[in-house]
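Late entry, evening session. Most of the bench is empty. Finally got around to the prediction I had been postponing all week. Sequence below, unchanged from the version circulated by S.P.
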Amino acid sequence: MAGSLVAAVFSGCTGSAPQPQVVPSALERALRLAPALGDGIRSGAHPAWMRFTGDSDTRSGYTYVGEWWAQAVSAYPTTNRRNRGPVCQTQEVRFAEGMTVDRSGTLYVAGHLLRSAGVATFGPNCGGAGASFVDPTDSPQDPVVDGATLYLTTIDDGSQAASIFVYNLTTGPEPMRQLTDPNAGLGIGVAVDSHHDLFWATNNPWSLGGQVIEFRRGQMPGTLLKATSIGSDYPGGVLVDRSNNLLFIDQSRAAIYIYARPYDAAPFSTISLKGYAEYCALGVNQTRIYCMDEAYASVDAYTYPKGTYLYSYTNGIDGKQGPGGIAIAAPSSGSSR
């Protein structure tokens, strides 16, 4: 729900470029989807392009899916061939936003806990609740883990622009420092590359358009990556693949732009999505990318890096609950799927 604190209505563009999609505001997402989309979902209809067939289900690992109004995060077999429902759920976490999984399989969810807001953790394979980390602003949006360091972007800091809180996973629930940048408005997503550089998807305070800010080795000052500017389009999350290519989601255009290091040139490739998404996740082998399609309340699978649409699943995902966050966990010896 990155558009959850602003109403995002976008003007069209000229020529043959695709028209931006309307991203629901906070109230629209909380109560229902945009009318033209929500009616089809409630009636059980699906768009003609959507198909429920795909890869083998065998030892596929988990795809975790968050819904803003739900009380838990659901886990699906990642290669969900026959539109199966969730195989398990986490313990309670509310208003779930972005999420990530570390190398051990631990799930990190930005959301509201029983007595505070921040990041909840859960053991592998829908395991029990673990440590939690407190967001002093009560506006957690998206986490990422780099070794023993946890980064959490806020959507904003109350009356102030967003920031990133930095935690040591071994020393307690409070942030040890904070990252800010004058170019940032709302914070949407974070990602880390193999050099420990941190990337922050934000909009800017002037046009509300999207951009990415880089913090070398997770330290200030930040550097605005001007090539990532998407004009007045509303941003989604950000990812980094194993080649350190930067993936930046444009919610308005239902697209993912892929940039090569040092991220100072136009994207070398674009993946066109079937519906707008705030967050996507790369598969374990990075031959697939899975997006939480907020337009049609589905998880949509594509090849990566080509971006060919493969299949979707919708079973157990309720458009009226505000689907948003998604994360992929590798198969483990304790997993039955």
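Two things to note before I forget:
The longest strand covers residues 140-146.
Residues 2-329 form a domain with the Neuraminidase fold (CATH 2.120.10.30).
Will write this up properly tomorrow.
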